[in-house]
Amino acid sequence: MKKSKSLKFTKNEKLLVSALAFFQFTHIVDFMLLMPLGPVLIDQFAINNEEFSYLVSAYTFSAGLTALFASTFIDRYSRKKVLIFVFTGFLFGTLLCGLSPTYQLLLFSRIITGAFGGLINSMVYSIIGDSFAYERRGSATGIVMASFSAASVLGIPISLFIANRFGWNWPFIVLFLVGFVFIAYAFFAIPISDRVPQKHAYADIFREKNHYPAFFLILAMMLAGFSMIPYISNFLVFDTVMTQEKLPMMYLLGGAATYITSRLFGYLSDRYGKKIMFYILATSSMVPMYMISRINYAYSVYGILAITTMFFIFTSGRMVPGMALITSVVSPKMRGSFMTFNTAIQQMSAGLATFLGGKIIAAESGHRMTGYQYVSYLAIAATFLSIGFVYIMRLHDEKNRVLE
Hints:
The structure is a single chain. The relative contact order is 0.17. Strand 1 and strand 2 form a beta hairpin. Strands 1-2 form a two-stranded antiparallel ribbon. With about 400 residues, it is mainly α. The chain is globular. The protein is built from 16 helices and two strands. The protein has one domain: Growth Hormone, Chain: A. The protein starts with 10 loop residues before the first helix and ends in a 12-residue tail after the last helix.
């Protein structure tokens, strides 16, 4: 296995990866925000856990369907232009969420936001694949993945503070305004690519047998994460000593830890191999998956925070080598279509996982939840499958040399 000679980025590469991270930060805050607001929205709109799951899954299903459609032609257009266009549409969807007075309108707003937001992810990782060599792709992915951590450390606690002070809808309005600052930055930070738009048969992405492990890998990772993640806040607030006011601490600690570990895991993936790091991180993630569903009133807040922090570290950590591997199984000429189709699978499987989790979990009187432990079994089983899919993947660079 060839080791990376240098993991240092040039000035232009730093500007590029920071712009991509800003876009991911905004996108992730918007998506994650509904989860800690779950208890508030359930009371605000007099809905149950299943109806709340529709708010989360509506976004992901909409994102998946839009990505599925866009994957048929997206390689014909500039990555930068597409990214800025869909991000702008996403911001207006976010604003509509903040202006929604009813559950039905909020559900519709999440569909609109998802229709644009789903393409952000595919464009970000397509640009990473186009702009960074395989030997440094893990580091670039780790930095962009650290935007999840920044969203947890800054975005979610600040958003919850704003929600507790001014109302649940105000974080969406503020996010809309901040997003346009990031667009202005992106115009200068993301270079105009000299890459010639590619035309290829859409069926080409399905003719390559090695693409299928990547498709199944993202499905398994989403099933493992999103069967549990959307319900963590509800479970902890309704079934443990955790309170709504203390939830920001969970995201603050988890985000701070993953901000460090995401970048570290990116470096280690480049240094020792992306496959071996995925095996280690995916296996480690199963421990907190099991532990978190066993939390009860006997656990102190500090004990809960220790478990949830470990959960954040490893569930987000496995995505770093995972996404670096996925971007490395496809040739550059069809990377946009491949990553957009992959995003369609990612979003729809996240929606499916959220939907299944909502069906498995039952709410008793006073919102108490049962069945969360069965969701953790589903997540662990999906994680085992993801390890198998990585094992059979074969990675090639642009010169068609086998990498791992």
